[in-house]
Write a structure and sequence with these properties.
Number of helices: 14
CATH topology: Formate dehydrogenase/DMSO reductase fold
Strand content: under 5%
Number of strands: 2
CATH architecture: Up-down Bundle
Radius of gyration: 22 Å
Distance between the termini: 74 Å
Strand order of the largest sheet: 1-2
Order of helices and strands: HHHHHHHHHHHHEEHH
Structural class: mainly alpha
Number of domains: 1
Amino acid sequence: MIAALAASLGLDPGDPAFWMPLVFMGMLFVLIVAGTVLDGFDLGVGILTQFAPAHERGRMMALLSPWRDANEFWLLLAVGLFVAAFPFAWGAIMGNLYAPLTLMLLGVVLRSVSFEFRIRARQETKPRWLLGFWLGSLMTAFGQGMVLGRVTTNYQSLAGYHWFSLFVGLCAVAAYVLLGATWLVMRVEGDLQRRAVNWARHAIRWTAAGMVAIAVTLGLANPGIFYKWSNLAHIGPAVSTWVAMLVGFVAAEVTLARVPRQGDRFNGTPFVICVCLFILMLGGLAYSFFPYLILDEMTLWDGAAALSASRLVLAGAVVAIPLLLVFNLLAYRSVFRKERPPLPAAPRAGEAR
């Protein structure tokens, strides 16, 4: 397949001009998956803060504190790599996404500022900054969903496609709520865990609806993608993907129903299943669009930087990305562990023990 693709482009598979864009796309896929999952539970918990009792909101924010900076790193790095590796695609793609990307940017700034200011604010003003963090999380999640909706319809501008993007935006909010709720199920116990189970079971239906809508619309709006998935030569991967997603949603629902009664045994399973569902969806999108950046208009090689610039970007990425990954993975060492209760304060000198 790779040899045939290289031959169709008039290149040799060993030519750097051929394989460098493939390497960059592989890096981008890894960063997008990491950002979607690791920043996703952050967004989900942020959205859920306004649905939690007032006395639990500070606890939920404290759970996010160790990973706030690391969570935002992934997608920012992905954008930077995309701009450097595919400069000719940047303007064409961003010109079709300026509205949802602006909403995302405003949301990211609002939630970051609100999180930091809440830590330093007086007790009576903390709820305002908590509300700002919730609103920023909601804007960011909704903006990402609208981006996905626009990409799915290949940036078509008919009114129906705009309504579809709004629908996908709402489903993206539900998907991040599902991810955040299952993360809380894994991390906490007691009343907050029971609430998180309930939130997850409500969100999973909308998440499933969104993923099905994306898959169906992707094929109906793009004849080339419909042919790729319905062609007999590719029917195996298509059926396997649909079956895996169906099994995943059913398994998530079943395990969520059993969590309150089975103790710690199944606590982490719903989160793992949700991560697998996200990877399946993103992998399906990548497979559908490959080898295009803009469907039927611009391939990876059309949008790639000049070979000399690509070498420079790759050299920087090979050095910087592993170091950054190691640094951030060290920060995530306890992200899947149970919450540790705070240690009791040591008695002061002269106080009775």
